[in-house]
Write a structure and sequence with these properties.
CATH topology of the largest domain: GTP Cyclohydrolase I, domain 2
CATH class of the largest domain: Alpha Beta
Strand content: 15-25%
Number of strands: 7
Order of helices and strands: HHHEEEEHEHEHEH
Number of domains: 2
CATH superfamily of the largest domain: GTP cyclohydrolase I, C-terminal domain/NADPH-dependent 7-cyano-7-deazaguanine reductase, N-terminal domain
InterPro entries: GTP-CH-I_C/QueF, GTP-CH-I_N, GTP_CycHdrlase_I, GTP_CycHdrlase_I_CS, GTP_CycHdrlase_I_dom
Keywords: GTP-binding, Hydrolase, Metal-binding, Nucleotide-binding, One-carbon metabolism, Zinc
Helix content: 25-40%
EC number: 3.5.4.16
Bound molecules: guanosine-5'-triphosphate, zinc ion
Strand order of the largest sheet: 5-2-3-6-7
Radius of gyration: 19 Å
Pathway: Cofactor biosynthesis; 7,8-dihydroneopterin triphosphate biosynthesis; 7,8-dihydroneopterin triphosphate from GTP: step 1/1
Distance between the termini: 52 Å
Catalytic activity: GTP + H2O = 7,8-dihydroneopterin 3'-triphosphate + formate + H(+)
Length: about 200
C-alpha cells in the first residue's frame, strides 16, 4: 500500500482521508476481536474517522492562520494567559493527554501584540496533532517568537497523560510539566517573575 502521508514533525503533508480512516478503524475493531457489523458498532468507524478529523485538525493549520489579528497598543510589558485548556494526543499510544498551558510574552517596544484568544487558538493548532508534550511546548514558543517577534516568550504546559494513567505504569494523577523560555524571559529575574505568576493559584 502506498502511504501518501509523511510527517516532518512540523506539520502535515497530505489531506485527512476520511474513507481510509474509516477502513482502518473497522480493521482495528476486527483486530481486537470485535464484530464491526454488530448493531452498536456499525456506525463507529465513520464516527471515529470524523472524531479523528477534529482531533487532528491542527495538522492542516499553521500558526499564521490563527495569529492573524495583531495590533500595536504601545504595551511593552508581559502579557500572560494562564490555564488554557489543552487536549492533545500522545503520538506513542494515540491516547489523550490533557491539562493546561500558560503562554506569556513581552512584546517588542514597537512590536506586535495579538488578541488574547489567538494565544489559545495557537495552543490548539499544535495540540490537535499527534504530539509529545515537549514538542507541543517548544512549537508554541517558537511560533510566537517568529510571528510576533516579541522580546521574550514563556510557555509552560502541565498535562496528565492517559498512557500513564489507564495503561502501562498506571499512575493516574501524575502531571508532567514542560517549559520553553525564549529571549529576554531567560533573564533570571524576568523568568522568576513569570514563573511566580504562572504558579500562583
Ligand atoms: N518525553 C515524553 N514521553 C512521552 C510522552 N507521552 C508519552 N511518553 C512516553 O513515551 C514512552 C514510550 O515508551 P515505550 O517503551 O516505547 O512504550 P511502552 O512500552 O508502551 O511504554 P510504557 O508506557 O512504559 O508501558 C513512555 O515512557 C511514555 O510515558 C511525551 O509527551 N513526552
Ligand atoms: Zn503515550
Amino acid at each position: 500500500m502506498t502511504d501518501p502521508v509523511t510527517l516532518d514533525g512540523q506539520g502535515p503533508i497530505g489531506e485527512f482521508d476520511e474513507k481510509r480512516a474509516e477502513a482502518a478503524v473497522r480493521e482495528l475493531l476486527i483486530a481486537v476481536g470485535e464484530d464491526p457489523d454488530r448493531e452498536g458498532l456499525r456506525e463507529t468507524p465513520g464516527r471515529v474517522a470524523r472524531a479523528y478529523k477534529e482531533i487532528f485538525a491542527g495538522l492542516h493549520q499553521e500558526p499564521e492562520d490563527v495569529l492573524t489579528t495583531t495590533f500595536d497598543l504601545g504595551h511593552d510589558e508581559m502579557v500572560l494567559v494562564k490555564d488554557i485548556e489543552v487536549f492533545s494526543t500522545c503520538e506513542h499510544h494515540l491516547v489523550p493527554f490533557r491539562g493546561v498551558a500558560h503562554v506569556g510574552y513581552i512584546p517588542a517596544t514597537s512590536g506586535k501584540i495579538t488578541g488574547l484568544s489567538k494565544l489559545a487558538r495557537l495552543v490548539d493548532v499544535y495540540a490537535r496533532r499527534p504530539q509529545v508534550q515537549e514538542r507541543l511546548t517548544t512549537q508554541i514558543a517558537e511560533s510566537l517568537m517568529e510571528i510576533l517577534e516579541p522580546r521574550g516568550v514563556v510557555v509552560v504546559v502541565e498535562c496528565e497523560h492517559m498512557c500513564m494513567s489507564m495503561r502501562g505504569i498506571r499512575k493516574p494523577g501524575a502531571k508532567t510539566l514542560t517549559s520553553a523560555v525564549r529571549g529576554q524571559l531567560r533573564d533570571p529575574a524576568t523568568r522568576a517573575e513569570a514563573m511566580s505568576l504562572i504558579m500562583a493559584g
